[in-house]
Amino acid sequence: MYSDGKVLNDNLITTPQKMIMCPSCGHVFWIENPVEPLITYDKPDAEVYSWNTWRFFGISFSDNKGKLALINHYKTFLKKSHYDPRKEIYLRRFLWWAYNDLHRNHQHVRLRYWLNGFMSFGVWHCNRKLILEGEKLFIKSYKDFTANLTRLMALLEKHPEEQIDLELPEIHRELRQFDKVKELLEKTGSRTHFTNELLRHSKWKDARVFMVSG
Length: 214
Ligand SMILES: [Zn+2]
Prior knowledge:
Order of helices and strands: EEEEHHHHHHHHH
Helix content: 40-55%
Strand content: under 5%
Bound molecules: zinc ion
Largest sheet: 2 strands, antiparallel
Shape: globular
Distance between the termini: 6 Å
């Protein structure tokens, strides 16, 4: 789990995808009550589009071009239509996560991570290049990133029932409003590993998304 609320399981996001774009005609539709897809090895009766052609609009998370394409999808959706607050929150949250994907796991660029022996030098070095390039792209889109996050925060303040646990303090931290993080966390009172980490990163004036557990 990451500080922005994105949870990955085997590198796959666990939050259900509610907005799907048809790989054939490009029509966009919402699934209000997503259910776990049925996994079967039976050959389908008709031609079907495979999961990865429509999942996250067919983009690839393994390179920065795919990550930028995902950002552009969400930005286009938001520009094209007017959504009710719940849908806008959903889209802006996914757009936030998509921006953070550009430099998620930034701690992996450290030499220490390679020395820990999780991966070969070649894989580490390649991954490092990808994240550093992603960081540059993140900085380039910083104005759009903050505009989206500011709007998301306003929506969540109006609709507290849509908030994920500790989402508001994290948004303040990523917007570099570090004093506000402290203030909000003092109000909630309870101390967990996550709240301690939020305070620690705020004290360092570190606004980057980080891994909480996993
Ligand atoms: Zn279609």
